[in-house]
Amino acid sequence: MSERTNTATRTASTEYPAGETTLPVRDVGRLLLHCSDRPGLVAAVSAFLAAEGANIVSLDQHSTQQTGGTFMQRTIFHLPGLSAARDDLQRKFTEQVAEPFDMEFRLTEAARPKRVAILASKEDHCLLDLLWRNRRGELDMSVVMVIANHADLAEQVRPFGVPFIHVPAHKEIREDAERRMLDLLHGNVDLVVLARYMQIVTAPFLENVGCPLINIHHSFLPAFIGAAPYRRAKERGVKLVGATAHYVTADLDEGPIIEQDVVRVDHRHGVDDLVRLGADVERAVLSRAVLWHCEDRIIRRGNQTVVF
Predict the structure, then answer these.
(1) In sequence order, which residues have a C-beta less than 8 Å from that of residue 193 and are 6 or more positions away?
(2) Which one of 23, 54, 186, 223 is most buried, by most CB atoms within 10 A?
(3) Catalytic: which of 253, 266, 273, 280?
(4) Active site residue 253
(5) CA nearest to 308, candidates 249, 264, 258
(6) pLDDT(70) > 70
(7) Whole-structure pTM value
């Protein structure tokens, strides 16, 4: 099977896929899949959808090698009555396509926004940006709660009409705090976003939360780890300030990267300037990562991601 990729060359953040929030979503399905590459995969998926009465709206695919690689595909289709037919459609696809091709897949409905919880601490820029974009319709998700280990942001969250839950957390009480958060999150959310949540998330928490987590941090790691990274970066004379959004794994800050961006700085920028510019980049990078996850654009492959 020959490789086919998106027509746009993704060399800058503005060239990444735009949001789909302006498109009609009723009866629109999203099918993400990956498996070992072999001839006939696109034909099998397309034939199945056609036989079920679905019309393919868009199809993006990628093979990691010309032969013997991993095949990945994202298909957007329209099928009248999708909500009622979804379970049967998923069963048929499993039997007729996924099992014969040893394929992993995910079938979702565009009309069902992801249920999202946001974890925060004291810094407000990422949290408020997500809430603001969601309110404006730029992020198609349902924010079901904000959990913070400090109460400082409660009044800022209130105007958005999202429940704010204060769960104190630090290393001495981490186990109890995570147990309380699991009681709130498990089974109730599809995604957890760490919007500058300044606490370590443990492996047991990740195993039991039941959904992916996305984190954001500055891109000075690992050179300037620990406290005051922007001051240390200024002392070192950095020329770029950036941010990284990634899925959370048990290995601290080493999960699959979803999105990154940078802004150039020079000797005229003080520490406060670096902090301000860093916050701007963090907001933009995190919002793009959350958008792409909520639009089912991301396929994880090992410790990497493919974003369609």
Answers:
(1) 116, 117, 118, 119, 130, 213, 214, 286, 290
(2) 54
(3) 253
(4) yes
(5) 258
(6) yes
(7) 0.89
- The three-state secondary structure class of 132 is helix
Query: Angle at Cα 202 formed by Cα 149 and Cα 220, nearest 5°?
Result: 80
Annotate 152-172 with b (16+ C-beta within 10 A) or e (fewer).
ebeeebeebebebbebebeee
Q: Where in the chain are the domains?
A: 13-109, 114-307
Structure confidence at residue 224 (pLDDT): 79
Question: Cα(143)–Cα(87) distance, rounded to whole angstroms?
Answer: 25
> Which one, of 166, 144, 142, lies nearest residue 153 by Cα?
166
- Provide the pLDDT confidence category of residue 4 given band limits of 50, 70 and 90: very low
Could you tell me if residue 16 is left (phi over 0), alpha (psi between -120 and 50 degrees) or otherwise beta?
Answer: beta
pLDDT score recorded for residue 6: 39
The Cα–Cα gap between 79 and 86 comes to 10
CATH number of this structure's domain 13-109: 3.30.70.260
Place of tokens 């670096």: 274
Query: Looking at residue 293, what DSSP letter applies?
Result: H
C-alpha neighbours within 13 Å on the C-beta side of residue 128: 14
Q: What is the CATH number of domain 114-307?
A: 3.40.50.170
Q: What is the mean pLDDT of residues 141-160?
A: 97
